[in-house]
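Reopening: structure tokens for the adenosine-5'-diphosphate complex, inputs below.
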Amino acid sequence: MNRVRCLVLNAALGPLDYKVPEGMDVGPGSVVECPLGPRTVIGIVWEAERLAGTEVPAEKLRPLRGVLPVPPLSAALRRLIEWTADYYVASLASVARMALSSGGALKGPATMTEYRLTGGLPERMTPQREAALGALEGEQATIRELAGIAGVSEGVLRGLVNHGALEPVEVDCDRPYPPARPDFVEIALSAQQREAADIFSNAVRKAEFAPFLLDGVTGSGKTETYFEPVAQALRMGRQVLVLLPEIALTENFLHRFEERFGAPPVLWHSSLKSTERRRAYRAVSEGSAQVVVGARSALFLPFRQLGLIVVDEAHETSFKQEEGVRYNARDVAVMRGHFEQVPVVLASATPALESLQMAESGIYAKIDLPSRYGGAQMPTIEAIDLTEEKPPQGMWLAQRLVDGIEARLERGEQSLLFLNRRGYAPLTLCRNCGFRYQCPNCSAWLVEHRFTNRLACHHCGHEAPAPKSCTECGEPDCLVACGPGVERIADEVAERLPQARVFVATSDTLNSPGRAAEFIAAVEAREVDVIVGTQLVTKGFHFPELTLVGVVDADLGLEGGDLRAGERTYQQVAQVAGRAGRGSKPGEVLLQTRHPDAPVIAALAAGDRDAFYSAETEMRREAGAPPFGRWASIIISSEDDAEAREAANRIGAFRPDVAECMILGPAPAPMALLRGRYRYRFLINARRSVQLQQVIRRWLAAIDHPPGVRVAVDIDPYSFV
Ligand code: ADP
Ligand code: ZN
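Re-run output (same inputs, fresh job):
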């Protein structure tokens, strides 16, 4: 008789065995419907010998209900799911769910009903209907998605359908994408680009695992270079996955891709509409989606025949997922390349120390692009010592920086001021009683936003109008802003250089692809003189007239003092510096600092990357930090402080005693309250030889907790809060 073992997508259950009914055709990877009590859950048929299950006698097995109409998950993807669950101490089900997050691709009809405005008006107008009509201009989506977009209930929209103001449209979910053409335009590569591109293209041709670190200075044309192996994969009929760290960057990328290949790539990210998601998922699984560009979640898509993986800006910390399965997409990408037997290119101007170390030890091949494309020079970098050159009282920019901006204004050039702080001021307090405005859900100060006149928490999204009088002592008009955010810097520029046209570029102002495109167009049309921006503007942009970059507070990144503070500061400043002087005019970078002698700042000002990396390497080696030793953290949280503390103590009581493995904690996490949950933390530091995951899994497996307690394991953590 035919029995199969299934991984069901329910983390609480182990694998389950089922009977295959007569005539049903399933094999490893098939996505199936499994009966579970009175319900039906989705499962994946797995090799029985790879999943320990309970041996249910044959006569007790229940039959599978059906097979879903998608190609089976490949063996390579199944191995990736196993590896990810194992490495990140997550359940197989929670990883498998990421591979099946399909927006309904697994079932349902091939057409869907979407709705759009007809231009007609309902007989009776209500404020909600009016709001919906205003918000839905140009949109077409399902009722549910439109309700989300318009911020009204689905009932309101159904009313509009009945009144003829919204009409249904039948959409073919699986219509094919326009083909990308490998030879749409020929790009003449520079000699150094050509050499690198040929190495990658050859690797694609060989179709075997080969990890590369493409280490190219900002403006060296890394994108043009890796487009060549993309073209090679297309010629072979193979698919390509390009991972980008932020959706905000895709706009610029899509544009360049389309110019090169004559059609846009297929997009994948968490805010796709369900129809787009379904279409992309099916096209990926059938092999007709040629090039997929996506955020980290694209990593688990069921490619039919992958030929190449590219991770652009591979050093970016946003490749690290910080909830659910806490994986690092950069590292999982390399593992996917391994299981799929395809090359992987990690591209960066400021590679992570971990990646450099892999190159050093010969595991990754390092390919360098040491100079900018087209003869553009690297910018000069100078530090401004704020303890010597003090900004005027109540201001944040040293005179030398303001003079620099003014000189650019006179020449019709552009400047960029970088400060990684959204809003007007990071802290607001009452002048009368000293009360500091804090988030009710998090251990964090509320940030004043003057554009919207609100106080906001950047961790949980809590928001309130800025009070007219102190909520604590009642004194009117007594709130003081402490410290600068980008909005405050923009005000200062406007005050000191009234002729300048200033644009604040943050996730608040560039919050949609449309607005990002408008921003790029305005800068290119020279309608902006000074950009004041957060890390959003540190990468991807290419503005030839931008010749001055001012780093408002180069010390900011060093404050938290975690393991990667120095590296992060180096990367961020080097990336933003990389925006200067990308055209024919030379660029200048001014770093405002109170610690000009700090190794990071000194290395940046001296333009001595190697000095920075070797100092950082030594520091990490001595500290037993990655890549020389390993870290992990365990965060225990609950909405009830006592419950969280007890759970942490219970885990602490079972702490294992393992040689060369140091376990610190439990202690309240630095962010002791986050989104309404109280948090306690263990930090674990181990030698590379320790089987860290196994230690943690065994330790935690034996301990039960009340349902309100969450225990999250973070392997190779990036966040230490
Ligand atoms: P990086 O990502 O390495 O910082 P980019 O890929 O953004 O650099 O390239 C910098 C600029 O140089 C871009 O405007 C790009 O279009 C241009 N460029 C790079 N290589 C070439 C080439 N071979 N031919 C034409 N333009 C190029
Ligand atoms: Zn908060």
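The domain at 629-715 is CATH 3.30.70.600 (Alpha-Beta Plaits). The pocket of zinc ion (ligand 2) is lined by residues 439, 441-442, 444, 457, 459-460, 462 (CB under 6 Å). Marking as resolved unless the reporter disagrees.
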